[in-house]
Amino acid sequence: MKVLYFHQHFSTPQGATGTRSYEMARRLVECGHQVTMVCGSGFMARSGLDGKPVKGIRRGIVNGVEVIEICLPYSNYDSLMKRALIFLRFALKSIMIAWQTDYDILFATSTPLTAGIPGILMRVLKPGKKFVFEVRDLWPELPKAMGVVKSPVVLFGMTFLEWFSYLSMHAGVALSPGIRKGMLRGAGAGKEVAMIPNGCDVDMFRPGDKGTSEYSLPAGVPDSGLRCVFTGAHGIANGLDAVLDAANILKQKGRLDIHLIFIGDGKLKPRLQQRAQDEKLANCIFVDPMPKTQLAGMLGKMDVGLMILDNVPAFYWGTSPNKFFDYISTGLPVLNNYPGWLADIITENDCGVAVPPGNPDVFAEALIELADNPGKLKRMSQNSRKLAVKEFPRDKLADRFVAFLSKIYKQ
Fold first, then answer.
1. Tens digits of per-residue pLDDT, 195-241?
2. Is residue 49 part of a domain?
3. In a domain, 211, yes or no
4. What is the CATH number of the domain that holds 9?
5. Same domain, yes or no, for 30 and 164?
6. What is the DSSP pairing of strand 57-62 with strand 65-73?
7. Domain that holds residue 281
8. pTM as predicted
9. Could you tell me if residue 49 is left (phi over 0), alpha (psi between -120 and 50 degrees) or otherwise beta?
């Protein structure tokens, strides 16, 4: 089976972002299939290629996967208009690659939603080939709910593209229950949508001995107290002011033994840093993004993982954040500040605390409770690792992914 795989933000573990597509592509290759990965030059991503581009494109083999990197630099610091143009340019170049490439299945993963455009057109130009569409976030529902996109014309265009992608695909992959429900609603009768969430890299992310010196902490990160970590993008969707609100309450209560550590980058990071400085929140520490391999060592020194999003109902069932799976792989109890499927998993498996959104007092008290009850913290830590190994190991989910594509190919 020849798979032409489109992911604009593809990254190997040397990047400081998610590696789902890398792991799925690698498992396809291990099972004897041929994979061509088409990607862009993403924010904090690393394709594994470093050669000189030819006519704006790098090509090479990365762990058995043929990688075609379209050199279109992308950053979350860019304006919405600039990012939209980059998405469209990537889609247009992807169409040409799809037309010139021999494949059996064209697999495209969002975001952005424009990832589906090559698959839509190839349904007409190459009617004998299969198109499988993977959705990581429900667009345009999320940007509309957040107020990021307000133009009726743009929202109509995004809604049409979403509908046409679902209509054109032969089958789909969803990363959460809510995403699957939305895809089935738009796909019409007879199309199968598999729910394959993000997974746990249980060999890379492992519980660490907090007292060892195998991994040195970055400057400013304390080696004692309750260390609570947030990893990933610092953007509008992440709602990180909620953490600073809780930090203020902890400061008022004199609980400076509870540290809030932010690892990553994003458009709002400078403002968050300035707020922490203005309000003298010494319990908030900001750390630069780091490769996934280094992040694994860092998380092994932490005590609690922070699963934070802005209070937008569309997030409750329509996201599958990488950080949650990294946390539980490392055996970190998770503090989650919004309801939904992940909050339910945390509660049902006693692997953390789900607090209501918009309530910094409850947020702060939950952290104090964990800091003052090491036995509870240890029990939740063990439950987190147990959940990761039993339900979400990457190998198990990658095998499901390969089996699903093979099934669609044979239909």
1. 999 999 999 999 986 555 456 788 889 989 999 999 999 998 899 99
2. yes
3. no
4. 3.40.50.2000
5. yes
6. antiparallel
7. 226-391
8. 0.93
9. beta
